[in-house]
Amino acid sequence: MEKINNFNILITEDEKLIRTSMNAMLSRRFEKGNVFTAENGAEALEILENNRKNIWLIISDYNMPEINGITFYKTLTDETRKNLILFIFCTGEPDSVQEEIGAKSLKITTATTQNELKNIVSSKNVLILEKPFNYNILDNILKIIKNQSTSAN
Fold it and tell me: Full-prediction pTM beyond 0.90?
C-alpha cells in the first residue's frame, strides 16, 4: 500500500465503531501527518481551532449530537475552507445533505468512475458518501488527492 506524506485529516463521527475503523484505515495510509477524531461538530471545531492551517481533509457525519455536520460545515471560517483540499460528508441521509448544502455538493457512489472521481475531487466541491460505503472509494479519493498535490509541486 502506497503511503501518503504530510497530510492531516479530521474525522467527525458520533458512532464509535465507524470513527475507529475510519481512523485505522486512514492512519495506515500515512507516513507523516495525523488523523484527528471528534465525536461531534463541537469537538471538531476545537480541534480545528488548534490546527486550522494543518487540516487538509475533513470527513464528517451529518446527524450528530450537539453540533450536526451541516452546522459544523457552515461554521467553518473562510481561512479554514481555503486551506482545505476537500470536505466529505459520510451519511445515511445523502439527499438531506445535498438539499441543505446545495449545488456545490456531489454524491459519490460505487458507480462513480475513476475519471469522474478525479474531476469531482478537482472541483473542490463538498463530496457526499452514502453510508454504508466501500472504503475503496475513500482510498481512491486519497490517491487522487495525493497525485494532484504531487503534480502541483
Answer: no
